[in-house]
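[step 3/7] fold_predict: job queued, chain A
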Amino acid sequence: MKKIFKLLVFAVIITLVNAGVVSAELAKNFYAYQVNGINIRELSANIRNLVDSYNGADAFVPLEKVSNAYIYSDDNCSYFVRLYPANKNTNIFVVSNEKYDVENNEMTDFLKQSGLSYEKVDDRDAMKEYKFDFFTLARKQELGNFYISPDLVKPLKTGMAKLNNHMAKDNKKTSVFPYSNDTNPIDLTLLDTQTYSDDNAKISIVQNEYRLKQKENKYVHAFEYVVTNKNSSTASVTATSERLAGLKDVTTESFVDLDRLDLLDTVATFPPVLVLTAGTSALCSVPNWIRLARITKESKRFANALPEDYQLSSNANMRILVLKYKDDPKPLNFSIKFTNGSTYNITF
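[step 4/7] structure written:
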C-alpha cells in the first residue's frame, strides 16, 4: 500500500512540474462535431476519398493501425482526427494545439462544401471515451507528432494483468452464465446499427452497438444481435467468436483503472503537441466497490455464453448479447442448420 501511495504522490508531482515547464497558458483543445444524417461508413468513405485525392503542401495522413483516424499538420497547427459512430449520425473528435480554429478549419470547410449539417458534441460520456482512446493511442506512440507523459500506474496494471492471466490459465474465456433469449429493453446509448440478410437462407441479422454507462465502456462496448428466421423450417443456431470479453476480464480491467482521472487533459504549444496526464487517480482514489458492483451488474447481462443448437422456430427471432473489446472487435460466426437439411455459415 505504501508503494502505491508513493507512486500516486510521484504522479501528481511529475504532472505539476511538467505543467510549469511547458506553458502557463494551457488550452483544452478537445473538440467534437456531430455530423447529422450520415452514418460513419458513408462519411468515412467520403473523407477517405478526399484525403486520398488531396495534393496540398500540408499533410492529412490516415493512421494505418487505427480505423477512421488521421493526423493533420501544417506550418501553423497539428491535430488528430477520429470518426466515431453516433447511431444515424457521425461524431468527429479532434485534438489539437492552441492554434486550431474550431469554427474554420479544413474539416469544417469540407462539411460546409459537402452541404452537411453539423453541431458541437455535448455528450460528456462520449467525450470521456474519446479522450481515453486518444490517451491510449498516444502512450503507444502511434500518433506521430503527439507525445504524452508516461502512464505512471503501468506497473500496477501490468501486475494485475499477469494475475488475471494466471487465474485464467487452463480456463476457457467463456462465461459461466448459460445462454438465454433476453427480451428485456436495453437502456443504453445506441451507437451503430448494421444489418445482414441472406435471401437463400431467409435469415436476417441486425447488429446493434451500445455504449455502457459504467467505467467498462473504456474497454468494451455492448453488442446486440437479433436473428430472425423467415424460413419455413426451424433453424438450429450455434454462434461462436474468436474473441469476446468475459465478465472477469471486464471487472479486472475496470478495477485496475482505479477510477482514473487525467489531471491535465490539456494540449500545449506547437511543436510538438504534448498532452499532460498523470495516468492515475487524483489524490489517491481507492477502488470503489460500489462502482465495481455496478459494473458487474451492467456487464453480466452481456456476458452470457453464446447459443449452441438453439431451436429458432419459423417466423421467430432470438437475441444474442455480447461484450466486444473496442480495440479489436471480432465478429460472430453463425452456423445455422434447418430441419430440411440445408446449412448456412454466416460471419457478421
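[step 5/7] annotate
Residues 9 and 283 are 7 Å apart (CA to CA).
The chain has seven helices and 17 strands.
exit 0
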